[in-house]
Amino acid sequence: MENNKNIIDPEKIHLEFIEEISVSMGNIIDKNIANLSISTDIAHISGYNMADKKYLLGLKVVFTINHKDKPIEFKFRYNFHYRIDNYDEMYSLKEDGTPFFSKIFVATLAGISYSTLRGIIFEKTSNSSWVTLTLPVINPSLVLDSWIDQN
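RESULT FIELD:
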């Protein structure tokens, strides 16, 4: 693999478009959700367009509440479309010619996307039966550990 600079310059990262793929919220009848157990699953997907210097990072968040032995789910799936001015510095080429993007670069985009999604979820749930859900602050690299199942 070739060496690259991997310098993250925030001024060269442009979030061009946020695409809502799907939102699904089950209804919570019991307003006392503070005492209920909520699990959170987060996964990602990524893609790139070398010619246009674009990178896509998709996130899926699923909240599950086990309410009276019946799981109630809240699902969010969004794609975040980026244009990167110094795109060519963010990857090296593998022997087969495919790009290998630096982990710090992808983690930076994951952090921006996740933070933005936290705000979207807060806003979407503020007037729902879910009251207001807030995603925890996490290390963005953890987002990269799970992939969205495409089946």
